[in-house]
Amino acid sequence: MKRRAALLGLLLVALTGAGLAWVRLSAREAAPITSAEAAPLPPPGVGALGRVEPASRIRRLNPPGGMAVTRLDRLLVTEGDRVEAGQLIAEFGDLAQKEAAIAQAEAQLAQSRAELARIRAAGRPEEVAAQRARIDALRFAESSARRDAERAEALVPSGAGGAAPAERARFAAARTAAERAEAEATLQRLLVPRPEDLAVAETEVLSAEAALAKARADATLSRVTAPIAGTILKIYARPGDQVGSDGLLDLADLTRLDVVADVYETDVPRLRQGAPAEVIVPGDPRRYPAELREIGWLVRRTTQAGTDPVAAVDARTVEVRLTLSPEGRAALERRAGMQVQVSIQP
């Protein structure tokens, strides 16, 4: 009996434990799923290799005249100098010769303009007055010669005068009339210039102006000016040198720095303009914030050289540009071209 009672007690305890376990399991299954458990994991960010580059790009300045330019004569800047847009940077050896050509063209233009002004003004007042006085004298002489001719003609029929004197009188009257007509034409030229003379003088002025413009354009080929305001990064030629294939110098505006990164083409759909990012500089424990500003339009082979020996060297990427924060710009101002790592939030 005692053994049977013990077995019944053990069975009752086992049933009670199983019931409690079933109740707990049912309560767990019936409990609602929390939002933390139901929310999907956020998409991963986009990582890429990049390089530090000024927002203005690095401008490599070359001689404007190409291979025809002579040696470098004057270099007016040094590395690290800040220059303004349009500031004179360098001059070449043939500048003096071209400036002399400018002076010659200016003198020729002044002469052509003076000739045009003379033709437009026609005669001076004293010349006009003298010509009018001569015309009056010729008119009087013409009138006297004509009367003489008429008297000589009247004497021929009566035999008081010969035919030869009458003919000479007619010739003198005609010559005086011709001289008067010539003097009047001269006066007209003094008062109003001939259109053909005016056209020739105006054409000569235009030709002289074109020659001066060409001389000035040639002189600009012997000078190098800054296309933008920026900082001189590197100088490749010194006074006395011929500028080679490396160019004259590198110029960039360092007030705004970008990070140019190559993002794999499969990661581009997860990018958006304005997305926050972080720039990791090798050897620097800090992370500099940045903002995605531009997404390129062209898929190409990657231009960043990574250190992973198993990475695909012909991976196809899209170039993106990120604007560095002010603290990042201050830290990387002297590191244009440095390779960095970029992490862009999706």
UniProtKB/TrEMBL annotation:
Annotated coiled-coil segments of the chain: 95-122
Gene3D superfamilies: 2.40.30.170, 2.40.50.100
UniProt keyword terms in alphabetical order: Coiled coil
Subcellular location: Cell envelope
SUPFAM superfamilies according to UniProt: HlyD-like secretion proteins
Domain of life, per lineage: Bacteria
PANTHER family attached to this UniProt entry: EFFLUX SYSTEM COMPONENT YKNX-RELATED (PTHR32347), RND EFFLUX PUMP MEMBRANE FUSION PROTEIN BARREL-SANDWICH DOMAIN-CONTAINING PROTEIN (PTHR32347:SF27)
Protein name stated in the entry: Efflux RND transporter periplasmic adaptor subunit
Origin species: Belnapia arida
Taxonomic classification: Bacteria, Pseudomonadati, Pseudomonadota, Alphaproteobacteria, Acetobacterales
